[in-house]
Design brief:
The protein is of the alpha+beta class. Helix content is about 35%, strand content about 30%. α4 crosses α5.
Length: about 270
C-alpha cells in the first residue's frame, strides 16, 4: 500500500468508530455527529470536515451551534480529514477561540522483530480476563491524564458499546498476576487498528507496552491482516517506541476544540 492508502484506511476506521451510536447529519462538507447520552464525549458530538465549504469554515461553526443549541454539549469540536486543509483554517479558527491538536497515524507490515517481556501474559476480555480488570486499568490511566470521572465514565461506556457493535476486541496484560496494561484490536479487511494501549505507572519501563504491541501485531496477522495501524498524539506520545517496532508515520489527523462556558452558545 501507498502511505496515502494507509492514511485512508486509518480514517475509515475513525469515521466508522465515531459514527457508531451517533445521530449523523450529512453535510456537503462532511458530517455532524451527535449523541445526547454522552454530551462530554468529543468524538460523539462533533463535525467531520472532509472538505472546507466554499463560504468558509464559518458554515461548519454555525452548524455546530445549531445542532448543539439547548443541549448539554459545552464544546465545539472539528476533525479534518486533510491536514493541509486544517492548516489553512488554523488562523481563522484561532480567532474564534479554538485550540489545535493532532494525532499521527502510524502503520507497520507484519510482526515486529523485538525483545518482549516473557513474563507478561495477555488475555482477551470476556474469555480470559474480566471486564473489571480492563476497566480498572483504563480508568486509572485516564485519571492520570487529567480526565474528570464523568468524562472518563462517558467515554468508557460509549467505547464499550461501539466495540460490541463493530467487533473490536479488548485485552488485559498481566505481570505477576496483576493487571498491568490494556489494548484493543479491531480488524477490518487487510488492516487492523490497535487502540487503548496503556500501562499502569508502576509497570512501566518493564517492556509492557512493547510486548502488548508485539502481541497485537501477531494477533492482527493471525486474523489475516497485512497492516497494523495505530493513532498516537503528535505531542507527548511514545512515537519513538513505535518507530523502533517498525511503525512508520503515514499522515496526521488534525482537530480543533473550543469549550464553551455555561450560558454561552451551547
Amino acid at each position: 500500500m501507498e502511505l496515502s492508502d494507509l492514511l485512508h484506511a486509518a480514517l475509515a476506521f475513525e469515521h466508522t468508530w465515531t459514527e457508531t451510536g451517533c445521530k449523523v447529519e450529512r453535510r456537503p462538507y462532511g458530517a455532524l455527529l451527535r449523541n445526547d447520552r454522552y454530551p462530554l464525549v468529543l468524538m460523539a458530538n462533533m463535525a467531520w470536515v472532509e472538505r472546507v465549504p466554499e463560504d468558509g469554515i464559518e458554515e461548519v461553526l454555525a452548524d455546530l451551534d445549531r445542532v448543539f443549541a439547548g443541549t448539554a454539549v459545552r464544546h465545539r469540536y472539528l476533525v479534518f480529514d486533510a491536514a493541509q486543509a486544517a492548516f489553512g483554517e488554523q488562523e481563522a479558527l484561532a480567532r474564534f477561540g479554538f485550540l489545535p491538536d493532532a494525532v499521527v497515524a502510524m502503520a507497520r507490515l507484519g510482526i515486529p522483530a523485538c525483545i518482549t517481556n516473557p513474563d507478561l501474559e495477555v488475555r482477551e476480555v470476556g474469555t480470559g480476563a474480566p471486564e473489571t480488570d480492563f476497566r480498572k486499568v483504563w480508568l486509572a490511566t485516564r485519571e492520570e491524564m487529567g480526565w474528570t470521572p464523568d468524562e472518563a465514565r462517558q467515554v468508557y461506556e460509549l467505547d464499550r458499546e461501539r466495540a460490541a457493535a463493530v467487533g473490536q476486541k479488548a485485552f488485559v496484560s498481566y505481570l505477576g498476576g496483576e493487571p498491568a496494561g490494556t489494548f484493543a484490536l479491531w480488524a477490518r479487511g487487510t488492516s487492523a487498528l490497535v487502540e487503548d494501549v496503556a500501562a499502569l505507572p508502576r509497570f512501566r519501563m518493564k517492556g509492557v507496552g512493547r510486548t502488548m504491541i508485539f502481541d497485537a501485531c501477531k494477533r492482527a496477522v493471525n486474523l489475516g491482516c497485512e497492516w497494523t495501524l495505530l493513532m498516537t498524539p503528535l505531542v507527548g506520545s511514545p512515537q519513538i517506541m513505535y518507530k523502533t517496532l517498525g511503525f512508520q508515520p503515514v499522515g496526521e489527523i488534525r482537530s480543533f476544540l473550543k469549550v464553551e462556558t455555561p450560558g454561552g452558545p451551547a
